[in-house]
Amino acid sequence: MKVTFHTLRWAALVACLLISVLAVRSQDNSKLPSSYMTVDIHESFSTIMTRMTAAKPEIMKRHMALLDQRYDLSNRPAQGVKMSGGKSVQQGVRVKLTDGTSWDQLSKLSPEQIKERNLFPAGFLPLPHPNHPEGGMLFPKFEIDEIKKQEGRELTRFDLDFDFPDHLLPDFPPPLYLTTRVDLGDVSHGKLVTLDNYYELFNGILNPKQIEGLRLLLTAFPQQQFNATEDRRSERPSRGVACFDCHANGHTNRATHLVGDSRPQEFRHRINTPSLRGVNIQRLFGSQRALKTIEDFTEFEQRAAYFDGDPVIAQKKGVNVLDRGSQVHAMAEFQAILDFPPAPKLGVDGKLNPKKADAAEMRGQQLFFGKARCVECHQAPYYTDNLMHNLQTERFFTSHPVNGMMAYGDGPIKTFPLRGAKDSPPYLHDGRLLTLEDTVEFFNLVLELQLAQSEKADLVAFLRVL
């Protein structure tokens, strides 16, 4: 066969075309992970809402089945133990064990044995968001209902519901205490502080900068799931969310979210809204704990955390750029006077007054500062060392996917203050520990403490009075 120039030219063109097609396929962005969220969406809001609303029942069923597999979610209040606002504190270990295993047996095994036999309690694993692939801010119904009642603002998501029942969450509305006016006790008078009532409640108690800071903390600004674009999760275009929609009355309602500091999506950790009580004594802020002042954190929240750590999508949805010298300063000044709840059994050093504490509480304190090793991270008087610690929980289990989340080691986590701990369930940074009893069992296992059952009970008694 005679090969002509014309034939060679066509062969070359076909080869180039084939290489181009293969190259395009190999660089198909839909197949590659990205650090960025989709900005240019080619789907109408009505079809997005219809599709996600239809998927909601199955998503929630799957997540609630996971919670039921991990925990006892029943309402079992402790006799005579109340939060500062009067709500009953839940009692008992709620994390479920593998059949045929006891906590005493488990504590006698090494981390390697627990991992090899797959005995690490599922409730001690990282907790996924109700829809981890989607993520986003999600509020308890009592917060949603009160904000709608007072302000007519809607915090309901059409695609998801909050997961934990109300009895396992903090007081609502929680008391609000001020370091500047300890004589007043709860300055919220049992109300949820909002734009509707803040001026009436605080005029004459706060200075003008603090009042302005509080107003801004109560003002809604655009956020990833609550905004005016087609890529929102509220039925109607939304003004957004306020800082105190999660940090209710400067405390917490345990609204949940995903931290913005890791990618891809399955490696993002669920975050349990921390309390702002006593924030003036803390020195690390943000999910990465890279922020060193409350001013840094306040500014960072609305620039990045509100938008899953993605400043590109933030520009589309209406990022609120705060002025550092006035607005941020005023917001931080108010947050800095939020106080811990009263602890009448503690002395000025943050430790128990022997004349007021009972025997179990005194034994618990001795354990806290001794055998239980709690003091290594949680130092009096506020019970924090303002540092990060890596518990290396990956010693106990093999990383694996759970409902769209990768369960893997937590890495360094912040030492949160334990003052007022009974007011802030559930516990740990993602809320995986429902009660103080769960928390004691978790650290008994992870730190290999070998505490007796009576010692665990005494430790819980002490934690309840902090």
Keywords:
466 residues; mainly alpha; Cytochrome Bc1 Complex, Chain D, domain 2; two-stranded antiparallel sheet; two-stranded antiparallel ribbon; 14 helices; globular
Can you count the helices?
Answer: 14
Largest sheet, in brief, is:
2 strands, antiparallel
Provide the low-confidence segments as ranges.
11-29
The average pLDDT score comes to: 93
Q: Helix and strand string, N-terminal first?
A: HHEEHHHHHHEEHHHHEEEEHH
SS strand fraction: 5-15%
Backbone structural class: mainly alpha
Strand arrangement, major sheet: 1-2
Count the E strands: 8
Radius of gyration based on Cα positions: 25 Å
Tally the structural domains: 2
Residues in helix, %: 25-40%
Through-space gap between termini = 94 Å
Any overview of this molecule?
It is built from 14 helices and 8 strands. By secondary structure, it is mainly alpha-helical. The chain folds into 2 domains: 181 residues, Cytochrome Bc1 Complex, Chain D, domain 2 (Orthogonal Bundle); 211 residues, no CATH class. The strands form 4 sheets. Strands 1-2 form a two-stranded antiparallel ribbon. A hairpin with a 2-residue loop joins strand 6 and strand 7. It is globular.
Summary of the model, kept short:
Helix content is 33%, strand content 6%.
Detail the topology: elements first, then pairings.
Blueprint: H1 5-26, H2 45-70, E1 77-82, E2 88-90, H3 103-107, H4 111-117, H5 141-151, H6 198-202, H7 208-217, H8 243-246, E3 256-258, E4 270-272, H9 294-303, H10 311-317, H11 324-335, H12 359-368, E5 388-390, E6 400-402, E7 405-407, E8 412-414, H13 436-446, H14 453-464
Antiparallel strand pairs: 1-2, 3-4, 5-8, 6-7
